[in-house]
Amino acid sequence: MQLTILRRLVASTAVVATAATLAVVPTLVGGSASATTATRADTSLSIRAVKPAVAPGKSSTIRGRLAVPGADPAGRNVLLEARTPGTPGFIPVASTTSGTYGKLTLKVTPETTTLYRWRYAGAADADRAVSGVARVRVRVPQHPAVRIRTTLSVRLKQVGPQDQDVVRGKLFARGMPLGGRWVILVSRTPASDGWGFESAARTDGRGRVVFGVEPEGQTAYRLAFLGTPKLRPARSARVVVRTASEVSISAVPGVIDPGGSSTVSGVVTSSGAATPGASVTLLARKVGSSAAWAAEQTGTTAADGTVSFTVAPERSTAYRLRVTHSPGVARGTSPIARVLVRASSSLSIRGRTVGEGYVVDGQLRAAGATRPGRNVTLQAMSPGSTAWEPVGVDVTNGKGRVHFVQARVADTQYRLVYDGEARFLPTVSGTVVS
After folding, report:
1. CA dihedral 299, 302, 305, 311 (to 10 degrees)
2. Is the dihedral angle over the CA atoms 184, 189, 190, 194 positive or is it negative?
3. CB atoms < 10 A from the CB of 101, how many?
């Protein structure tokens, strides 16, 4: 399955049908630890539903006001939380920023009768606050006697070349997948005092939902389904993304000749301190290839967190170091380091006599293709001499060709020389005689 990573700025919520004004933010964290309740304002939150009852599929607006005596209430992040019948507690379903005079507004489209409240996490100048409860009733022609039980699974996985963290879930009822249902992703850090809204998305035809996450530190995630008149709400277990180890990498030398070797080394640290005894895997992939990374070697970091591997690739290869999670060691992946293997090159040569003198032509090829824009030197050896002398330099054209015109001197030998570069080995052509 090709994963579509849902970004926070485009996510809707399980209760928000259109959220053009919705500001999705990470988990809200409480006020500064140095602040005390004595120095914080007594914050208050009000709430009301513009339409206390709506038809199925219709929307209502939840309004409120954040009051912070002695401070400006505008520009503060406030969570909207919801609870449906059968849910043990409130779940954050959206977040917004208070406007002028602390005004709060969010449009909601509940699938079943839902209770809403505002929650403010506080700040250095304002205490935490929770509003009362506003109820939006969904007018349903007939309620079933028993709502169907649902289950919601959750799994954490790493995908893509950069090992991005992805939270995946599946929603089922009676063993059948539930497609087209809103599922909410919430998160919580060790420093936060509650769950915060992250994103929301509808399940696909197989009941699956996928969220890409990029936490800055250790963060717990869980999924929630608020239910419908016929389906019970469900909450998943939690998964935790832990702070990754920092892994550096280098390859010395970065360019080798065929048959040569290089050393790929790195240092594993966590919070600036070396991580000894970490299990490290060397991953490799041919340069320019889209194939999956393959494990080539494994090793263990030394007391100073260093690890090294000797490699002898036949072709130019990209390498990465991956740290395996173990007790006391967080996972982590390094950037990419490349070891380039210089490809062989060849020079053809042809000489012919023309009216203006003796013409030497040649073509440069390397790694199976002609190579334009390279300097090629023409060398000559006069009759009776044993040394080659440079007599001209030309730059290969778009087809890798060079062209020289020399005064005709009988029995003079000529050859073409390419000095090579980082990617290609040097080469010398055959010999022509005027």
Report:
1. -40
2. negative
3. 11
Q: What is the pLDDT of residues 71-118, one digit of tens each?
A: 999 999 999 999 987 788 899 999 999 999 999 999 999 999 999 999
CA atoms of 282 and 262, how far apart (whole Å): 13
Rounded to whole angstroms, the Cα distance separating 228 from 110 reads 9
User: Residue 32: is its pLDDT beyond 60?
Assistant: no
Q: What is the pLDDT of residue 218?
A: 81
Distance separating alpha carbons of residues 324 and 280, to the nearest angstrom: 6
Whether 222 shows a pLDDT value over 70: the answer reads: yes
Least confident of 50-54, 101-105, 271-275, 281-285: 271-275
Find residue 376's DSSP bridge partners: 394
* 170 pLDDT higher than 90: yes
State how far the alpha carbon of 37 is from the alpha carbons of 44, 105, 125, in Å: 14, 28, 9
pTM higher than 0.70 for the full model? no
The answer to whether the CB of 307 falls within 8 A of the CB of 299 is yes
Could you tell me if 363 and 346 are in contact, meaning their C-beta atoms sit under 8 angstroms apart?
Answer: no
Tokens 């591997």 belong to residue: 309
Instruction: For residues 251 and 17, give the distance between their C-alpha atoms in angstroms, rounded to a whole number.
Output: 51
Distance CA 109, CA 182 (A): 11
C-alpha separations of 229 from 37, 49, 303, 343, 351 in Å: 42, 20, 60, 68, 89
pLDDT, tens digit, for every residue of 309-331? 999 999 999 999 999 888 878 88
Closest CA to 313 of 254, 261, 264, 263: 261
Q: Are strands 337-341 and 255-256 parallel, antiparallel or unpaired?
A: parallel
List all residues 6 or more positions away from 368 whose beta carbon is below 8 Å from its beta carbon: none
Nearest to 107 by CA among 231, 28, 18, 219: 18
Joined together, the tokens standing for residue 278 give 């970490």
Which pLDDT band, with edges at 50, 70 and 90, does 162 fall under?
Answer: low
- Cα–Cα nearest to 76, from 44, 48, 117, 49: 44
